[in-house]
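Data deposition worksheet. Section B asks for the primary sequence of the deposited chain exactly as it was used as input, without tags or linkers unless they were present during the calculation. Section C holds the resulting structure in token form. Section D is free text for depositor observations; keep each observation to a single sentence. Incomplete worksheets are returned to the depositor.
Section A, Depositor: J.P.
Section B:
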Amino acid sequence: MAFAFALLAAVANAFATVMQRLGVEEGAAERSKGRSMMASVLTRRVWFAGLGLMTASFLLQALALANGNLTTVQPIMVSEIVFLVVILGIGFHRPLGWQEWVGSCGTAAGLGVFLAASSSTGGDARPAPEDWAVLLIASVGAVVIAGAAAQRGPRAWRAASLGVAAAICFALTAACIKVATDQWSRGTGWHLFIHPESYGIAVAGAAGLIISQHALNAGPVAASQSALLIVNPLASIVMGVWLFDDKLRHGGGRTYLECFALAVMFLALFVLSHSPLVAASPHGERLSDPATT
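Section C:
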């Protein structure tokens, strides 16, 4: 059940990405009038349509986390980029090249082998306050460092740095969602209004959304997408093991197979995010890279 909900969430996120990308492109034209990037984006209806789909993806992800663990659900979510390729290829009649085929097949194969080999179990532990404190300090520190790194350097570096920051925020959001769904499933839904993780969803999710929009506008989409898609599942696996006592099967060569599968998946994601199809706008034009400010 968790697998199905996670796949549906990835599909919804792929459609949301297309619509939000269109909104960012349209909003970029308004920047010449002295408006900020986010102020311009918030005037685009297509961006809000994407936000609606992102909300649907959020709810589906919550259902997936309610029925599964963090180390399984979050890696499945990276299949979003494979669905993105399908949407752009079929919906916008774009041709698929070797990068799209190799990247999509490699991502699917690597993900499938990792899930089969790891057979993640557990994930039912209630995070201790001290574990949350350590994780929050580490996460906030990493986001601040990545944000500072994005202030200088070439555009690809800036976009990648912001992608890393957004990935950590989204992984932290997923961890908070996991706690909230646990509270709800235990019949203590009213605790959601006083539980700090509920507000963590809003804060981390909003931060991730804003940072990801700036990442799209900071430089090449390939740079920001590569960083986001690779760092998010890695951060989620660490958080799942640290907070919820997720257990990955080891022994008998499983550890090497899991690492190899993840390496294949990340390499395929890197190739896929650098493909002309993903780096281009849904209309087929290369996304513009803003001038260095």
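Section D:
The radius of gyration is 19 Å.
Residues 2-279 form one domain.
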